[in-house]
TrEMBL record:
Taxonomic superkingdom: Bacteria
Protein name: 2-amino-4-ketopentanoate thiolase alpha subunit
Pfam families according to UniProt: OrtA
Length: 104
């Protein structure tokens, strides 16, 4: 398998808390599941998926973890359109144009 080159944007994962060490107030099924984090950054040395690697994040922090993904996608969104916000936007724009706002 070819190594992923140094400097590639990647995602790593690392176990933060093993099962059984989670907070006692969380549900049993959560207590029995390890807590992992995911971090994105730039690969410091060539590596393959599944290897432990070091990355450098966008703010310069160096972190280690298991390489899980290259060029990870952002899969979240802001949900469905809320039509009422268009009306709010127009109201705010009209208010600002009227000169009734603070500092006018």
């Amino acid at each position: 398998m070819d190594k992923i080159p140094k400097g590639t944007y990647v995602e790593i994962t690392k176990e933060v808390l093993p099962r059984g060490e989670r907070a006692p107030q969380v549900p049993i099924d959560t207590q029995n599941t390890p807590l992992h984090f995911k971090v994105k950054g730039f690969l410091e040395t060539p590596a393959s998926v599944g290897e432990e690697v070091e990355i450098k994040t966008a703010i310069g922090r160096k972190m280690t973890g298991i390489l899980t993904n290259t060029n990870p996608r952002y899969t979240h969104d802001f949900g469905d359109v809320v039509p009422q916000l268009f009306q709010v936007r127009e109201s705010i724009k009209n208010f600002m144009k009227s000169g009734d706002g603070h500092g006018q």
